Amino acid sequence: WRGIRFCLDNSPLLMTQVRAMLRADGGSGALSILLPMVSATRELLRFRELLSDALSQLQEEGHAVVRPRVGVMVEVPAAIAQLPLWREQIDFISIGTNDLSQYLLAVDRNNARVAASYDYFNPAVVREIARIADISKQLDLPVSVCGEMSSDPGAAILLIAMGIRTLSMSAAQLPRIKWLVQHLDLPTAQGLLDSVMLQSDSARIRTLLTDFLLEIDFPGLRAAARQ
């Protein structure tokens, strides 16, 4: 009971938050609202109805407001197949790799009995993220990625090769991913992605990525490999 479900079940609280965001935006048009854990069209429609009510209220009160961009966090597998159906309702996509991975793999990362099975290099996860990237291109929707994959150098290579150009990560991880981007040849990365997509085992995928990072002399990796 979280994300958009919690928000819609507590609509007065959501209305307060949406009004506050719109007022803070001040009519600049810079506001984007990302909806988490969306799994059904009705959730999008209910939010957009509430957003329209908030805009109308603030206009009547004399505030300058502009309709914000609305996006969905793709972290529930059910959202993937529905993205084309939501094209008229959304303006951008963000892929939440942490939750998407655990829901695709039926793994609770906080459960010690199964946590070891959580692996975003599982071929199913890699293929589904590539599928989302392809759908975003077909729909002409901006797509970004957040979660652990964004700051993992090997995973970042795959994401970039998929055509994803916006990665969210902590400030501490920026220097190493920046180095990677500066030293990454896109056609080579795309060739590596092609090889990865042929693999049926996450261990083999990790080996391919590690070998590539060693080949480009990724900072700190060679020393770590010797330890």
Characterise the protein shown here.
The protein is of the alpha/beta class and 227 residues long. It has two domains: 1-90, no CATH class; 117-227, no CATH class. It is 56% helix and 9% strand. It has twelve helices and five strands. The chain has a five-stranded parallel sheet. α8 crosses α10 (186-197). It is elongated, with a radius of gyration of 20 Å. The N and C termini lie far apart (44 Å). The model has no long low-confidence stretch (mean pLDDT 96).
Please outline what is shown here.
The chain contains twelve helices and five strands. It is elongated and about 60 Å long.
What attributes does this structure have?
5 strands; elongated; 227 residues; alpha/beta; five-stranded parallel β-sheet
The largest pleated sheet is described as: 5 strands, parallel
**Mean of residue pLDDT?**
96
Low-confidence stretches: none
Alpha-carbon distance between the termini?
44 Å
**How many strands?**
5
- The order of strands across the largest sheet is 1-2-3-4-5
Q: What helical percentage do the residues reach? A: 55-70%
SSE run: HHEHEHEHHEHHEHHHH
Q: In one word, what is the shape?
A: elongated
SS field, number of helical segments: 12
What radius of gyration results from the CA coordinates?
A: 20 Å
Indicate how many domains the architecture comprises.
2
The secondary-structure class comes to alpha/beta
